[in-house]
Every structure is written in structure tokens, then in C-alpha cells.
Amino acid sequence: MKLIPYFRNQQDSIMKLIEELVVRESPSDNKAAVDRLVEFLAGRFEELPAKCVVHRTKNFGNHLQVEYGGGKRQVFVLGHSDTVWPLGTLKRIPFKVQGRIAGGPGIFDMKASLAAFYFALKAIRDLKLSPPRRIVALFDSDEEVGSHSSRKLIASMAKKSDHVFVLEPPISPHGGLKTERKGVGVFHLKVYGVAAHAGIAHEAGANAVEELAHQTLRLQRMNNRREGITVNVGVVQGGTRSNVVPAYAEAEIDARIRSTHQGSELTKKIYSLKPVNPLTRLEISGGINRPPLERTPQIAALFRRARLLGRELGIELKEGSTGGGSDGNFTAALGVPTLDGLGMVGDNAHAVDEYIDVSRLAERIALLTRLLTLN
Ligand SMILES: [Zn+2]
Fold first, then answer.
1. Which of 15, 17, 49, 181 is buried most, with the most CB atoms less than 10 Å from its CB?
2. What backbone phi and psi angles, to 5 degrees, belong to 348?
């Protein structure tokens, strides 16, 4: 059975499901909304039938586990049900198809991916393909806000798996897979100075804002584009009024690294910042939140297998790296070969003109199906 024509024949039902998922808005911070989407998804997967386990959480939407097929060994498919779009976005940016382009909040990241996985399983059932491993998927509900409530679950499921396929969007616009992702750190710097009247007792004060300015420049100098290290002082605040020497200022810092080693070195550097004005005091917190997805030989080998499958389907897959993190960072850091970017082709994730290319749905779902049935 030729898979691409098979999926092309089902284009209308695939688009219908994508629409059903997009119109069920699911911002990370709205548990009730995410739960409604998860319940709908579980209903669809159960029809296949696939076994669904709903992992209930208190503060975020429930995480959905889907299992299909049997066998001792398993392959892990990782995705997320949440989006960055607040409830009501749909009124402003409705689901819309124009020619090859379909748009809507969260369509590319990653509601089309969830639909693709459903149709891959359906193909496995209808075409009586026999996957050599049990297929276990997890769609968590808090990926867009750091996966704090799903991290443990992701790790425990990954450890039992031979490899991990991540349904995040591919590299735009050509649709390449992601074999390297930067690790992400978040740091917080608090500066304590000494308050004083700016006119009467200026010399008695220690200006926390001035000190933060010094530290901001030091932090920015830790950028090393060639090595792939970025440090961004993204938020600063401090002071109370112009006639008071400020006693307090603070900054939030985003850091990205390519290797675990870079991560520990950079963390050490940030923690060893010393005040320029000895009358001020620095308090530093935070650290690397997502480890980097490093392109190990195992990951490179998994990509080569995917590229071969792609060629059999008539598509030429590229690979690449990205500065953004995903749940794949966690699984790769555990040493489980992880292939990321297996979502649908499109562009502009997290932007108002987010879209998928409808004409390339069939080839990507075919690729996913082939990967799931890989020996
Ligand atoms: Zn995503």
C-alpha cells in the first residue's frame, strides 16, 4: 500500500480533525479548557481502539497517555496539548483554510501533529501494519510553560523506550528534522543596596539600579555566539521614586547553551558575579531548566534511518538545530535516542500567522507511520 496516496484520500477527514482540535482552545494556564481538549482526544483514540490513561494534575490540564499495540519493547511518542494562545484568540484568528495554507491558534504547534498521530495509528490498524514495538504516546499539558508537572512522567516513560519521536514542528520552511536543541536556563538576579535621600544624604546610599546596570553588562558579555551560548537580560526593574537612592533592583535572565558542559560552566560564572559597589549585595537564583538535546551518534543514526524512509516515500529530509527547547531535551538528556521535529510542515509558531501546509500533510503522516513501524 502506498502510504502517501492513502493519506491523500483522507485529506478531508484529517483537516476535519485538525479543525476540531484547533477550535478547542487550550492555553497552558487554563486547566478546564485543556481538560476539555484532552477528553475529546481520548474519545477519538479510544475509538481506534487505543488504550488511554488520563494522568490527573491539579494546576495544569491532565496529561494524556495513549497506548497502541503490544510487545515488550516500546517506542515513545511525545507531544503536548497546550498552546500559547489565551482563550478567545479564535475570535481574532479563526481557523481558516486558503488553498494550501491552513491557519489558526496552535495549528502548527502542535494540534496538526496530534491529528497526524491519530491518523498514523488509524493507518496501522486499517492497513494491518504490524509495529514491532508497543507505541506509547504522552501528550502533556504544560510544555509551553516548562513541563514542570509532566517532567517526571516524561522521564519514566522515556526510560522504558527504545527511542523517542517528538511531534514538535519541523524546521521551517523546508520541514527538516531537529537533531540538536539548545538547553534553556532561567536565572534571577536580586540586587540589594542602601536607600537614602537623593538630595540630602546621597553619599549614604548604595544605588541598586547602578549596580544592576554593571551586572547587566557583565551578563551580556557572557554571550558567545560562536560557541552557541546566549545570555539575555530580558527584564529589569528597580527603584521606587527619583528622589530616593534605590535599595533594590532585579533582573530576569534567559540563557541558552549547546552542551551540558557549557551549561555548568555558565551557571558557575553567573553564580560567581560579585558586586562592583561593595555596599551592595547580590542574590542569584535559578539554573538550567531544560538540558540541551545534543546530537549524539545514536541521534544521528536515528536521523539517517528517517532520511532513508523519507527517500522511500520520495521526500528529502534535512536536519538542523534550534535555540528553542522542547520535551525532547529531557528524553535526550537521559540518553534515549530522540528525533524531534516530526510535526507537520508549516511556519510561524507562537505568531498570529501560524500555519500548516496542507499539501504536505500526507507525506509527513506517512513518514510518521513508517517510523512507528520501523524494525
Ligand atoms: Zn510545541
1. 181
2. 65, 45
| Helix/strand/coil for 194 | strand
Ligand 1 centre and the CA of 106: distance in Å? 9
User: Of 3.40.630.30, 3.30.70.360, 3.40.50.2300, 3.30.230.10, which CATH number belongs to 183-290?
Assistant: 3.30.70.360
Query: Are 317 and 342 a contacting pair, CB within 8 Å?
Result: no
Interval between CA 73 and ligand 1 midpoint (Å): 27
CA 341 to CA 236: how far, in whole Å? Answer: 34
**Are 50 and 159 contacting, i.e. CB atoms less than 8 angstroms apart?**
no
Ligand 1 centre and the CA of 142: distance in Å?
Answer: 10
Hey, which CATH number is domain 3-181+292-372, 3.40.50.300, 3.30.1360.60, 3.40.640.10, 3.40.630.10?
3.40.630.10
Give the whole-number percent of the chain exceeding pLDDT 70. Answer: 100
Average of pLDDT values for 116-131? Answer: 97
pLDDT score for 1? 64
pLDDT in tens, 283-293: 999 999 899 99
Residue 84 CA to ligand 1 centre (angstroms):
9
Give residue 285 CA to ligand 1 midpoint distance, Å: 27
Q: Give pLDDT tens digits for 338-360.
A: 999 999 999 999 999 999 999 99
Ligand 1 centre to CA of 208 (Å) is 38
Q: How confident is the model at residue 216 (pLDDT cuts 50, 70, 90)?
A: very high
CA of 286 to the centre of ligand 1 (A): 23
Distance of CA 206 from the midpoint of ligand 1 (Å): 44
Q: How far is CA 115 from the centre of its chain?
A: 18
Domain coordinates in residue numbering, the chain: 3-181+292-372, 183-290
**Distance, CA of 289 to CA of 186 (rounded, Å):** 7
Q: How confident is the model at residue 173 (pLDDT cuts 50, 70, 90)?
A: confident
For residue 144, the CA-to-ligand 1 centroid distance in Å is 7
372 CA to centre of ligand 1 in angstroms: 20
How far, in Å, from the CA of 103 to the mean position of ligand 1? 16
Residue holding cell 543514526? Answer: 301
